[in-house]
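User: Fold this; tokens only.

Assistant: Input:
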Amino acid sequence: MTSPNHTLAPMLRKLSRWCTLSEEDQQAVLELPHETRVIGKGNYIVRDGDKPTRSCVLLSGFAYRHKVVGNGGRQILSVHMTGDVVDLQNSLLRTADHDVQALTEAEVAFIPVDAVTDLAFSRPSIGMAMWYDTLVDASVHREWTANVGRRDARTRMAHLLCEFGVRLHDAGLVSLCSYEMPMTQEQLADATGLTSVHVNRTLKSLDRDGLVQRSSRSVLITEWDTLAKAGDFDTRYLHLAD
């Protein structure tokens, strides 16, 4: 495999999870034309209604998808991290139907959508990997919908904390049970359908019961199995072992 220090290596690692890519396929991914930029915390990567001409690969930092409804309320739909192509669907859909915003300062690589679609259709294994990636995104969205719609506050929060640990660990960024939470309590509220006050109360409850320890943004999961049970958490929807 080509140097892991290549700019698009995080994208290649992610796609290689879903399908076996030949050396030629790998090289084709790394040779995609791209422009790197640093996006400041809170700045938009994609706005609802945009007609994006570029797809965005997250090289470092975090981003999140969200929708703003008619009364001004915001629902956070997913959080993205290193290696994610956060708007891959816009290479075909053309018009963005939601916002993508930098959750932290993020380094990104912008790739022309025409280059993405040309590569997907000219190299079937890469196209399959991209398709798989969008299907897993959809699986995560289904889980988040179930989390907000049918779980109580404690279960929602425990589930979210477990998902962060698993995904960060899988990306090789942190250990499973210890990480920095990049979201504010307001953002956690918008992700779980709760108020900021309810989020604070729920986190304190998990802390008081000895399942997690928090200090500022640091999260230490002290009882993984118990927290996973409390969060009705099963990694199957992440398709990590497929």
